[in-house]
Design goal:
The protein is mainly alpha-helical and 84 residues long. 92% of the residues lie in helices and 0% in strands. The protein has one domain.
C-alpha cells in the first residue's frame, strides 16, 4: 500500500467516523425523549444517568476519532507535502 493510498484510507475513515459522530449527536439532541425511554427500559437507568453516559460516549468517541483517524490523516498529509 502506497502512502497516497494510506492517506486516502485515513481520509475516508475520518469522514465516515465524523459522520457517525454528527449523526449520533443530532439524534441525541433531537430525539432525546424517545431515546431516553428506549434506553431507560433496556438498562433501567434514570434520565440523569443516561445524560451522563451519552455525554461520556460522545466525548470518548470524539477523542478516539481525533487520535485514530484525524491525527494520522493529518500527519500523512504533512509528510506527503514535505516529501514533495
Amino acid at each position: 500500500m502506497s502512502i497516497e493510498e494510506l492517506a486516502t484510507l485515513f481520509g475516508w475513515c475520518t469522514v465516515v467516523n465524523f459522520g457517525i459522530l454528527i449523526f449520533t449527536s443530532i439524534l441525541l439532541t433531537q430525539f432525546r425523549k424517545w431515546i431516553h425511554s428506549v434506553h431507560a427500559k433496556m438498562c433501567g437507568l434514570s434520565e440523569e444517568e443516561l445524560n451522563q453516559r451519552y455525554f461520556a460516549y460522545l466525548g470518548q468517541f470524539k477523542i478516539l476519532w481525533i487520535i485514530f483517524n484525524l491525527t494520522p490523516y493529518l500527519v500523512i498529509r504533512i509528510f506527503i507535502l514535505g516529501a514533495a
